[in-house]
Design brief:
By secondary structure, the chain is mainly α. Helices cover 85% and strands 0% of the residues.
Length: 262
């Protein structure tokens, strides 16, 4: 419990919400009564357990997670650098913005296919394809955040003649924390879906590869088991890492803002 009596904690709300989703799934499976189309949650859980004991699920899960983390890191670093730069330079933004619009509207499938055609069916092509698809989104979000930076705080930093690196660390990045958090949350959700397509089309391991294989065998339960295994990992990252980091990143800036305003 948290706060007043009768109020459910955030953890309790998440647990109840996910439980209701599983209950709806179980009800739909019971009403359909065809496990080849929609297996029950227990049937999928048994498949996940068997695949875990065999070592197949951990192996393919680790392969996909590795690709997701590398592509996520590349997209966030490059996207943040470009987004902040464009946000601070309106003239440069005018010239580069058409490029950003182009990359935002090129379908992910096209980028993946072209990378495989140009670079071959290898790991480098897969990671570049995923990173390119997400970087433009990060650029847009960070550019908008930079354009909305607080002028009084920036002017205060100039009055105290703070170094550029210090301004970036203590003035710009704290204000951009919500935008960075939103980019990270959205980025993980988008990147792992794109990674599955990359693995589906041209890799020999990973969750996408397994989904492709069991799709050809019409094994719905196995497709759902491998899909939900990675969804579970993403939920763990969301609530165990991203949400706490977002809360911590906002506290220091709130304190600095109150001091600057006084």
């Amino acid at each position: 419990m948290q706060g007043n009596k009768g109020h459910i904690s955030d953890t309790g709300v998440v647990a109840l919400s996910l439980s209701s989703l599983v209950a709806m799934w179980a009800l739909a499976a019971w009403m359909m009564a065809d496990p080849t189309v929609l297996p029950t949650p227990m049937a999928v859980l048994r498949i996940m357990w068997d695949q875990t004991l065999s070592g197949a699920l951990p192996y393919h899960l680790a392969a996909t997670l590795g690709r997701v983390l590398i592509a996520f890191f590349l997209a966030m670093v490059i996207g943040m650098a470009l987004g902040i730069t464009l946000g601070l330079s309106p003239r440069l933004n005018r010239w580069v913005n058409p490029w950003i619009v182009v990359f935002l509207n090129v379908p992910a499938l096209v980028v993946i296919v072209l990378c495989y055609l140009w670079l071959g069916l290898n790991e480098v092509a897969a990671l570049i394809a995923v990173s390119v698809n997400k970087t433009a989104m990060v650029v847009v979000m960070l550019r908008e955040g930079t354009q909305n930076l607080s002028r009084p705080i920036g002017e205060m930093a100039q009055v105290f003649k703070m170094r550029r690196l210090t301004i970036l660390r203590h003035v710009i990045l704290p204000q951009l924390a919500p935008y960075i958090s939103a980019s990270a949350r959205n980025g993980l959700a988008v990147i792992w879906k794109i990674v599955l397509v990359v693995e589906f089309l041209g890799r020999g391991n990973g969750i996408g590869f397994q989904i492709h294989m069991y799709f050809q065998l019409f094994e719905t339960g196995y497709v759902m088991a491998y899909s939900l295994s990675f969804v579970a990992v993403m939920l763990l990252i969301e609530y165990a890492i991203l949400v706490p980091l977002e809360g911590r990143s906002r506290r220091p800036f709130s304190a600095k803002t109150s001091v600057a305003q006084t």
